[in-house]
Amino acid sequence: MGKRAKIYVIILTAILGIAILYLIKPEAIPQDPSYYEFADDRKIFGIANFWDLFSNIGFLFVGIWGLLQLNKLELTKWNKINVQLICVGIALTSLGSAYFHYQPAHDSLVWDRIPMTLVFMPFFSFIIALFITNKYHATQLLLLTLIGVLSVLYWIIGEHRCESCGDLRPYALVQFLPMVLIPLILLLFKKTNQQLKYLFLVFIFYGIAKVCETYDKHIFDLLNELLSGHSIKHFMATIATYFLIVWIRKTKAGFTNTL
User: What's this model's pTM, rounded to 2 decimal places?
Assistant: First the structure.
């Protein structure tokens, strides 16, 4: 299969993913109020939801460490901006998520989700630049990042317009569509020295994080109220971001022609 045909496969898969979501969910998906009912709401040291809040600290350390490590790499301008944006997004996720868990509400959730889009979309842009083409790197990075931020703003504007008017479908696509397209890109555009074991660990720990989030209370009960699934989710996602930074560092040597 030629390169152009492979690109068409990626585009068609993306279109299909969007179409499937909007066919399955033809109406807007507002934020479920039960989302804010976390299993572990204990107050420790006078701080409500302590463990859900404190468990975000790892993102801050990984983000700062990532900036220090990746700034040492000899990258082109837009590749450096790309990886810096990923690291900043990771660090800001720590602050945004901590703020959200301190005061769980629609408005504080915005500051949790926007930083996450600064990780999801620049990561996707970086994959495209490395494996497909870096010819339009600046444009795709800015465009994808803007789409990510706008997906959150679109949701919150709807929530403010009227109760249950928010629509999470664009944000869902921002979060999950790259998780489908990235493995497909890796499969179609194979390169040597990919260090894919680290990228595989990113997906594994992110998947575990999502499972822990889904079974928040079940895990809390299973662990005799030691930690909740949501708190463990933060730890697992932190490990995922760590391996993402490691992958970028290790992979750099295999992409000297594009980086």
Answer: 0.91
